[in-house]
Every structure is written in C-alpha cells, then in structure tokens.
Amino acid sequence: MKIMISASEAMEKGVWSDILRLFGRDKDEEIWPQEEFILTEEQALKLNLIKK
C-alpha cells in the first residue's frame, strides 16, 4: 500500500522534519503546501500516520 501526504498535511501532523529526511529534502528549499509525497506502508506506520 502507498500513502500520499501533502507538505501541509505533514506539517499539521508534526511529521514534516521526518518527511524531509526520508526524501532527502532541505528545510530551506522551496516546497509548495500541496506538494505530495508518497510513503510506503512501512514508512507511514513508523511515522504513526496509520495503524495496522
């Protein structure tokens, strides 16, 4: 299963810094609030975005 999360959703859920790390992004680069990131089920579980 793949989980999609936007930058603004990640910020609201408090996982933004983890998303940046997972995707090798820099905190200072320009990212649009609606930019989406695709997580694996395992990544989403580790970030507590879903429960098994």
H/E series: EHHEH
Mean pLDDT: 96
For the report, how would you describe the main beta sheet? 2 strands, antiparallel
Q: What is the percent of helical residues?
A: 25-40%
Distance from first to last alpha carbon: 12 Å
What share of residues are in beta strands? 15-25%
Q: Give the radius of gyration.
A: 10 Å
Distinct helical segment count: 3
Structural class: alpha+beta
> How many E strands?
2
- Large-scale geometry: globular
| Sheet with most strands: strand arrangement | 1-2
Poorly predicted ranges: none
What secondary-structure arrangement, pairings included, does this model have?
Elements: E1 2-6, H1 7-13, H2 16-22, E2 36-40, H3 41-46
Antiparallel strand pairs: 1-2
Task: Supply database-style keywords.
single chain, 52 residues, alpha+beta, two-stranded antiparallel ribbon, 3 helices, globular
Structural overview:
The chain is α+β, with helices and mostly antiparallel strands. It is built from three helices and two strands; from the N terminus they run βααβα. Strands 1-2 form a two-stranded antiparallel ribbon. The termini are close together. The mean pLDDT is 96.
